[in-house]
Amino acid sequence: MKSISKYYLIIAFTLIGFVACTSPWDDHVAIKGNNGKTLMEIISENPQTSTFATILQKTGYDNLLSGDKILTVFAPTNDVLASVDLNDLETLKTLVKNHIAYSSYTIIEGHFSTDKVEMINTKKMSISGQQINGVSVNSENGNFNISTANGILHLMNGIIPFQKNIYEYLLTQSGNLQAEFIKKQDRLIMDMTKSVQIGVDLNGKPLYDTVWINQNKFLEAYPLNDESKNYTYALIPNNVVERIETKYAKYFTRTVTSDQDSIVRLELIKDCILEPVEINADGKYISVDGVKMDINAANILETYSASNGLIYKLSDADVKIYENKVKTIFIEAENYDSIFADVSAAWSVRNKSSLHGGKDVLMNSRTEFISKYSSTDSIVYTNIYFYTDPAQTYTGGLGKVNNCFIQFKPVINSVTYKIYWSAYDDFSWHYDGSKTREPVKFSMKMLLSFPEKPIVYRNASALFVNNFSPYTVFASTRFTAGVQEEKELQRCNISTVDVDSPYFLLSRNYLYTDENNYFNFYNGTDALGDRETLICPTYGKSTIIVSNTTEYKTTYCGPILLDYIKLVPQVDPNE
Hints:
CATH topology of the largest domain: Jelly Rolls
Organism: uncultured Paludibacter sp
Helix content: 10-25%
Number of domains: 3
Structural class: alpha+beta
Transmembrane segments: 7-25
InterPro entries: Adhesion/Biosynth-related, FAS1_dom_sf, FAS1_domain
CATH class of the largest domain: Mainly Beta
GO cellular component, one term: extracellular space
Oligomer: single chain
Keywords: Membrane, Transmembrane, Transmembrane helix
């Protein structure tokens, strides 16, 4: 069967040669047949490649070149291998794998038909005309397009340089803080799919013939070692690393100093992984995570063309904090972490093209917020309504318990924030005068817990636990139907009425004169901020809850209607 497959392969290459010879190149580009001999046999018999044949035998790759896989070999001639140490086995293996490719690559009309060739070491080499990574094929007749039973042979005028990928290059940078950090993320873990159970121990627990594999969480997230990727890496010296990290530190505060140090270093390394770009001018160069790095072209000390991108060794660089490293956070309501109501059908995600993310989230509930005309006269009185049904015939899902909520889990920085949110009550009967004498108004409240603090949650008694403050929540002035608006949240005192305070009902000003003093907002200053700001003490994942039950409890708790939340860090624009 093997001889038959070789026979058909020879025919295939002969046909290719026949087609090529119809061009003006004629015999000069025709693929040369070799009577069914393998690549290894041809290389061994050619006096120009005897040294390469020896290297193949030393490294064991003679077996690959004697097999039935289709390969292309770019064989350096003896003279260019004269300085290679034939006793350095690892170097020889690296050289061999850098000169063999799967599949066939031929020269037709003076050039290869592709601009890339992937070697068996997964390195992708650039092709230009008859050059592989800048090294030319020996164009003398008989030295290229040599067909064999298992592939194509080209003789080369030089050794194709081995290109390290970005990670391999970083590993050569002894003492560099960034490279050392990435390497330290290596972990040996047991490969359960390859480890074989060989028995049990005295306690009956399984014993394995264990196969260990290396795992690096950083490289899984940012694969600088992946030959199929393409990045630009800004390699900065240790003194610049330390300077920028000092600037980052206060925005990534953790209770454990070693955790904070690791997070800060990780953040800076991520910012050095840029989108693929050639740096040839001063500018702001964007990272794969969207952070801009300020680079002056005069600070480029060295450029290395890696197999998966470019590395610029710099003497200096910088990263601005304001709306760059620490940005405004938009939390779209539809990207919630979880929702709660006693009836799940009370919740709906609405498609609204006019909204920030094209959607909002609504929880339908009964409410006492709506005033309507009397059926007999124009006297306004409070009437308990289903929020979305003016006829009170709604039969769908309704939230009828205290403190229904929608929850989010944003990662926030250790910084002072101002908080905003947006909602749009676009039910026409709420504001067009057909059913109500004045536009409908509604309110919501926000509770939250900081990173590394006990998580805020609703317990079985419908009470919130672990809010950032036992006496205040965040709220805004009430939303008005028919008005699409963004409102600033402020800390608001909770009700002091004994039956209301456990539910975090908002403190009402019953002598209010306008919407700005409808609620009793907090007017003090403490470690958490003031009326308009929130000081977040630590960096990490927080919990934010938006809830109803602001003015009324029991079954008339009101709706939740939310477009987005916006957290604006208070950072010096010059930083």
